[in-house]
Every structure is written in structure tokens, then in C-alpha cells.
Design goal:
Elements lengths: L8 H18 L33 H12 L14 H13 L10 H6 L16 H12 L14 H13 L10 H7 L45 H12 L14 H13 L10 H6 L16 H12 L14 H14 L9 H7 L45 E3 L16 E5 L4 E3 L4 E7 L9 E6 L5 E7 L1 E2 L8 E2 L4 E4 L10 E7 L9 H6 L32
Antiparallel strand pairs: 1-2, 2-10, 3-9, 4-5, 4-8, 5-6, 6-10, 7-9
Amino acid sequence: MITLWTTSPSALRRRRARLALAVLVSLGVSTLGVTSVSATATSGNIALSPSMPRQGDRGESVRALQRALIAAGVNVPGGADGIFGQGTATALRSFQASKGLVASGSIDASSAFLLGLGPMPTLPKRGDRGDAVTTLQGALIRAGHTMRGGADGVFGSATSDAIAAFQSARGLTASGTIELTTAIALGIAPASATAAPSTNPALPQTTAPTSSGPVPSTPAPPLVISVGEKGEAVMRLQRALIAAGVTVRGGADGVFGAVTTHAIGTYQRAVSIGVTGQVDTLTAQFLGLVAAPVLPVFGDRGPRVADVQDRLISAGITLKGGADGVFGVATRVSLRAFQTARKIPVTGAVDLRTALHLGVIPGLVTNEPVAPAPVAPTPVTSTPSSSVPVTTTSITVFPVLGPCWFSDTWMSPRAGGRRHEGVDIIARTGQPLYAVIDGTITRQFFDRPGSLGGNALRLAATDGTYFHYAHLSAFAEGIGLGSTVVAGQVVGYVGNTGSSSAPHLHFEYHPGGGAAVNPFPIVKAVDGCRSTTPPTTVAPATTVADGGSNAPTTATM
């Protein structure tokens, strides 16, 4: 009997690649480090690995995609059924829109990375040269940031400084390096919805004025977008919020409603400015929607620098050489000390947030250091029906040892008509869980039939604020009711007990001992999912258990 082979070689290669991915998923191996997924960093030239599932596909690779979407809080009609149909494509479009990507419904390099299904796309890094760097520099210039030397295609200190300034203006960590969130905000990431136009080396440059007079006001008029407005201006606002890491349910749909108002308030709270839910000039400057005022930079001289130095000294910061009007190393060191004291991104530069805290520009700062006189707490809405004002407590340690993954699923629907009142941090079974603050274990729960949280505990501070850990596989040795712990001490291990569909930590935040409020902002502020190094504050007697492996998947409570 003769069998005719009708499958083309290219189709055979794709089938083998998908089979390999399915094997990895079935073994619980994360595909985050798979090097076969490739993509270029320039928008409009996206290489899709044949190992990524496409519409019409079936199997484990599709289930991995569907589980990742569900874990991201996106509804997938039919659940993880392993069929890449219209429902999965629609869910993927919703996810892409919420991240500031082109809502194509197909897996691109950026979507794959954000879902934990592929490595981060190749992006320019310090020391690189060429068109990709020129594209980056052009995007920074168009965003209104000074680029010393212009778009010269060389990624050096000038480019790093401009990136840090852009990140600070958007409320991102001012690292001076390009990661995917920054690349999407600049429009240079694969499939970015705000893709940068083709690079022109002759782009006009934005340069700081040489005048040493007072800080000039922004030349652009205040951007005021009111509730109820629709259109491109609202879409730009929503994309800027998404690029800053704020969830905008429904994505950049161009409609300024209650969802967008809530997202603005979340962003304002995160960058410690007046929480109004309105797009005032200061908020627009932080989001990069209008030009920020020109501020002193390293190397400047004159009264504007002296004014910053005087304000540093008045804030109790030591400044070697005094207010000499020269922005040199001494001023940079003092700025870093000031930023550390105020718990804002440490850049050593006079970025927008630092200028606000110094009083160089007007605006309300909501996290000033505690003054001798009583300070009214900032109200934080715990649920739509709550009106009890509470104060925000920061945490010093991320609760889970990486690698892990999480997103903002606050108030997502749950079985029985419940709403999700925490953040789910997806990790492997057995990964250590850490105390996020110094405190006491005031409640301990054990897994039993019908239990929602399974093995769980409550870690409380002296002011009554407590954090709830659920679904633990086990408690750490010596941890029980009444145990006193320090931030960074192991209290338990990631598990899947109770009403849970995958290994994860369900983490709740109850300020003042009251109703739960969204923990995503305080967890995101100390995000340690990429770190596999235990905290340095771990108590000497603490032991760390080895964990198993499990790919990111659905987690519910």
C-alpha cells in the first residue's frame, strides 16, 4: 500500500513547533525564555514565531493562550477549550487594546511577552547604534524631551537621560533603559497602537532655553477633557494611562466615562498628586499629554539652579558647596537624597515629580512626610458603596518570590455573584511567601471542604491594617496564630488550596482593619516578579522551600 504525503515542508515545520510548545506547556514549563519566538523592535515589522497559535488552531498551545488571557482578567467565551475561534480572537483584541497595542486578535511579540508566552521583543539598549536607536530618539524628541546631539543613532548617556525624563513624566520607574512598557508608550514596540512614524535624522530638536530666568510656563494650553467627551483626545488620554500601567477597562475606546475617571484617580494616587479624576494641567503633564515646564538639568548654571538648591537646603538636605547656582555632582547627590527621603523615583534629576515636591512648580502633593500637626487622610474608595476614608499604607517587600505574574483584576466577577477583592499573583507551587510589613499573625485558616481561601493567614500592623494571604500550600515553620514577623520573613508557600483553579497567592489589603481596597497599586510599586533573589530582610531562622513548576494559568477565588 502506498501512502501519499501531502503536507508541505513549511506546514510540517509549523506543526512540529506547535507540538513542541504543547509539550512544554503540558510539562508546566514557562515559555517565557523560549528563544524561538522572535520579533524585531521596530513597529510595522513584526516577526511571528510559527510556534504561536493562530486563529483556527486547536490544542495545548491554544489552551495556554486562553489560560493566560483568563489570568489577565479577560473573559474567554467557552473558557480554555483549546479552540482558537472568534471568541478567543475577541478576548485577545480586548487584552491588546487594554495594553496600548493594535487590537489585531493575533499573537504578536509584545502580546506574547505580556501574556507570559514568549520573551521580551528585542529593544534598543545602551551601546547600540543604528536605525532602531534613531527611531527611539525620534520618538523621544516628538514626546517633547531634549536629546543632546539629536537623533544620531547612538545609544549613550544623552539617550538614557532622555528616556529617564520620559519615564518620570509618565509615572514609570526612571531607569533610563527601554523595557516593553516604555517602548509601547513611545510607540516603538512591536504592534504598538501609537506606532512612531519612520525615522527622519533631520527631526527638529527640542532644546532647553539658555535663559537663566524663572521657570517659564508651558507654551501649550492646559488640556482639559471632561467626562462625557468622546474622540481621539480621549483615546490619547486612555493610551497614556495604559502605558503608565493603569488598567482602563474596555481599553482606549475614546469614551470618557466612569471607567476613565476611576483610572485617572488611580494614576493620580500612584504619582501622589491631587486625586480629582479630572485631567488638569499637572495630570496632563505627568501623562505626557502636554509639554512639561522647562526644568534645570545637569550642567546648567544660574538662578533657576540656585532656586532648586535653596529648596533642597530648606528641606533639610545637605548640599556640598551650598546654593552656588551650579548643577553639578553635588546637586545630583543632594537630589537623590531628597528623592529617597520623599520615597519618589531616585533619578538625581529635577524631573516633574521632584519639582512638585520641591515646590518649584505648583500642585498638590498627597504623600508629604508626616508633619507635627494632624494631616487629613487621603480618602480611598474600597468598594462602590463605601464612603469610609482610609489612609494608604505602603509595603516594603513583595509578597512572592519570582518568577511570577499578576494584573489588576479588582472587582472582577466571581462565582456566586461575588467580586474579586484582591490581587492574584500567579506563581509555582511551593514558591516562598513573604511578610510585606512588620506585624503579627492575627488569624490563621486551614483548608477544609467548601473553604474559599484554603490555607490562609492574616498579617496585621499595629494600626489595625491587615493583609490576607490565601490558597497557601503550607505555612512556614513556626508561623501560627500570634506569631510576630518582620518584613521579608517567609510566612508560607504558594499553593492551590480552597476554591482555586491554579497555584497562586490571593492577596488582600484592608487599611485600618476595614473593607478591602484594591491592592494592585501598592503591590505594583514593589513589583518583584522578575526577581529570584529573596529579600535581604529575611529572618535568620527562616527556611526557603524548593517549588515545583506551573505555567501561568487561570487563578480565581
